[in-house]
Amino acid sequence: MPDIFSYDIVVALDRPGCPICHAVEADESRWIASFWREGKDGPESRTMFLAAGGFCRRHAWLLHRISVVEGTGAPIADVYGALVERDLHWLGRIKSRSRGRGAKRTVRPREPCPACVAFAEADYRKVAFFIEAISEDAVRRRYVASDGVCFEHFAQAVNRLDDDDAMRPFLIEDWHRRLRVLAELLAEYQSKRDYRRSHEPRGDEQRSWTDVIRRYVGDQ
Predict the structure, then answer these.
(1) Which one, 18, 53, 146, 187, has the greatest CB density within 10 A?
(2) Threshold 0.90, pTM exceeds
(3) Long-range interactions of 183-192: CB distance < 8 A, separation 24+
(4) In this predicted model, what pLDDT tens digit does every residue of 136-175 receive, in sequence order?
(5) Using only C-alpha atoms, what is the Rg of the chain?
(6) pLDDT per residue over 78-118, tens digit each?
(7) C-alpha span between 118 and 122 (Å, rounded)
(8) Residue 52 CA neighbour count, 13 Å, CB half
(9) Angle at CA 220, nearest 5°, toward 144 and 190?
(10) Pick from 106, 113, 123, 117: which is nearest to 83 by CA?
């Protein structure tokens, strides 16, 4: 049976797409929501946010989406207002130092997005929980019947398993099987683009060009 750590991954096996991607995405949304509520007020969180120059594009818009749902942009105005004031002060210093000088001044590099850092760690943990979960026969059968993991999480899992671990050849054979099926569907999709086959019914091959993206990089 799945435990508290792998439960969200096992539940996600019943959804289309990579179950680890789904589990990480849910954690990601909870993390950003927590930042929106109180995390932004913590000294360490605020320092990391400012050092990074705010969130990356993905996490900034996720924060914005939560603010839209909650009906207020006050948390964004708070943290990004502090960032704007900090950068105004910083740019003012650059302007004053640059007057009359020919030397080019570069914009300082930013620290990594704090949400990305948090989710790289979460991603690493989720792969470990996934490996543990599929070691159980019942979960492994559910996994075989599911859409499986994306290439990124497949590679992470395989690279963390020893050569003598039974889960390593299982995952490799499973991915090989899935790719064979996908290759056939992609070939069928291309073949049915021929006008001479235009009368033939369309099937699963029609979404293969979407499935191949999902197979390699996971869901959006």
Answers:
(1) 18
(2) no
(3) 185/211, 186/212
(4) 999 999 999 999 999 999 999 999 999 889 999 999 999 9
(5) 23
(6) 999 999 998 898 888 877 776 655 555 666 668 899 999 88
(7) 6
(8) 20
(9) 70
(10) 113
